[in-house]
């Protein structure tokens, strides 16, 4: 996809997901990004070329991650393979209903004869899940192995030279963009030169 404006500049992004049993939902989301400058004509002209190369990079990365996960599953059967989540509206409604029902049930729960009220419990955000105590000072039961462990692309793909290859792919893409730009230079109504900067960003 392409987004931006003539003031802040335009960006071409290609989003893809990799299987990762250590990530929430067993998937980790990444994006290949190219900064195209403020010239919308040049960025639009380069969009097709950038998208094709990003799609190929993402395809190879996904295949490497899936191959690594299959090998890890064969060695450690307890590792679960990620499944596709369609996240249909009905599924979201069922999830909400289940959550609301659980909350209502918790209001009437009792421990050692004492009634528990959710109104007296301090909400704890997910980013605090790895802490040993919550904001009220109460020790948390979560163990270290239960905390989400971030993994890098080198570990996910089991390729120590992943970023070397990625840099080579980006350098090749820049070369093609420069050649394409020089070929269309005389046909463009613009004389300014934009620098394209491909990169990779990821999040769990």
TrEMBL record:
Residues 1-204 form the UDENN FLCN/SMCR8-type domain. PROSITE patterns: DENN_FLCN_SMCR8 (PS51834). One of its GO terms (biological process) is positive regulation of TORC1 signaling. Pfam families: Folliculin. Residues 80-106 are annotated as: Disordered. InterPro entries: FLCN/SMCR8_DENN, Folliculin, Folliculin/SMCR8_longin. Residues 82-95 have a biased composition (Basic and acidic residues). It comes from the Eukaryota. GO terms for cellular component: cytosol. GO terms for molecular function: GTPase activator activity. This is UDENN FLCN/SMCR8-type domain-containing protein. It comes from Cryomyces minteri.
